[in-house]
Amino acid sequence: MKRVTKKQSSKVRKFAAEIFKILHKNLKDKYTFTVRLVGSVAWNTVLRDSDGFWDVDYQILLTKNSKEYKVNRLNNPTDIKSSFLREFNKIFKDDKNYKIENSTTAITLIDKKNKYSIDFVIIKLYPSNNEIIRRNNKKNSSINEFTWNQLPKFNEAYRKFNELCPMQKKDLIENCVLPRKKEEKKKPLIMARILNVENLLSAMVCKEEMDLEFVLYDPVIRENNRLFMLKGNKEHLVVRTRTAHTGKDDAVQKISIDALTSIVFGYKELEKIEEEEKEIFSAEFKEEISKLMPFSPVFINEIV
Predict the structure, then answer these.
(1) Domains in the chain: boundaries
(2) Is residue 296 within 8 Å of residue 263, measured between CB atoms?
């Protein structure tokens, strides 16, 4: 795992500063805010993941000087998130290198070319303690609704770390924090397991017209060991299955449940799966399976 240098992170921080200038200008009639760099970049402990990506975290701190605070005490988190998201989309609407995502708590800017992302979370410090905007959609609703949620308090370890002198902090980071992060990066913390493949595939969407067949191998759930036939377009996807027959279906593409999981959740590119999981995909299979829109990116904020 490669460590991100100060020079590399400094370049992204300068880029973020330019973004904040635009946001300040365009939102000054509604919101005033300060920003705070948090997370690994703040402590110079950023590591790239196995694909070379790394991330930066910022907090946008809304202040009492905001006109919206004077009007309604910032009691409209859905409108606030929408206002900021709208400005981000305006800034990057003509640049295909960047992608904007509206996640549960953050607005995420992804630089696909330089392989990094910036998470911007919106926080208010008043009238009560620190609160963060978080998606809280109603059941069976497709409308994004956001609420204010209390931030967790800093634990004792964080307080003690801040009491250390600069040399002690550096020693702790270099000899304890970074080695531990490198070990954690080597293995995924969360694993996805598809139980009913037919139901999951039926919930997916096609980017364009597709026609695909494959035989699935699942060593644990035998009911998944079938031939799957997917046919659809942007409007709907039909998934049919039947028992795979030796001889008759020998020429049909074979795929493991592990590889299929990586594909449908957007965890790995097809070439990466072939390399790491020793799968062999035909050109036709690659072309058709790529027409499925993966459940991506999936983030589960829970460690059991």
Answers:
(1) 6-153, 154-187, 197-293
(2) no
Q: Report helix, strand or coil for 60.
A: strand
In CATH terms, the superfamily for domain 197-293 is: SCP2 sterol-binding domain (3.30.1050.10)
- Tokens for 54? 């790394």
Reading the block at residue 213, the tokens are 């067949």
Q: Could you please state the CATH topology (level 3) that the domain comprising 6-153 is classified under.
A: Beta Polymerase; domain 2 (3.30.460)
C-beta of residue 227 within 8 angstroms of C-beta of residue 213: yes
* Dihedral over Cα of 174, 178, 179, 182: its sign: negative
DSSP class of 174: I
Would you say 101 and 162 are in contact if contact means Cβ atoms under 8 Å apart?
A: no
Model pLDDT for residues 21-62, shown as the tens digit of each residue: 999 999 999 999 999 998 888 888 888 887 889 999 999 999
Can you give the pTM of this predicted structure?
0.59
Asked if omega into 179 is within 30° of 0 (cis), the reply is no
Helix or strand run (H / E) with residue 215: strand 210-217
- Using one digit for the tens of pLDDT, what is the confidence trace for 250-287? 889 999 999 999 899 887 888 888 877 778 888 899 99
